[in-house]
Amino acid sequence: MTTIDTNPVQTSKGWTIGLWVAQALLAAMFLMAGSTKLTSGSAELVAMGMGWAENAPFLLIKFIGLAEVAGALGLILPSATRIMPQLTKLAAAGLAVIMVLAAGLHITRGEFEVVPVNVILFALAAFVIWGRTNKAPIAARA
Asked: Which residue ranges traverse the bilayer (predicted)?
C-alpha cells in the first residue's frame, strides 16, 4: 500500500530567511543604482566612476535606471504582499539579464575590475529565482 503525501511543501526557516536577505540586498543595490541613474546626468555618473555613461544616450541611462528601480520593487512587493508573488521571480530574472548585459559592456570596455560585482549580483538574482521556485515558494493570497 502506498500513501500519497497531500501536505504542502514544508520549507525550512533557513531558506526563507536566506532568500529574504538575498532579495533585500538585491533590492537595496538596484534601488540605489537605479535611482542614481534616474536623478543624475551623464557627467555626474562619469564623475562617480560610471565611465560607460559618457557616450550613452540620455534615454538609455534613464531606461536602465527605471528598469533597476522596477526590478528592486518587484523583488520585495509581490512577495511581501503575497499579491502575484510569481512576479518576484520575474523581477529577479530581469535583473539577472541586466547583469549579463552590464558584464558584457564592461568586458568590451576593458573594465574587468567591475565584472565580479556583476557576477555576484547575477548569482544572487539566480539564487532568488531558484529558491523561490524550488525551496521556499510564496503562495498567493487566498
From this structure: 17-36, 56-78, 90-108, 114-131
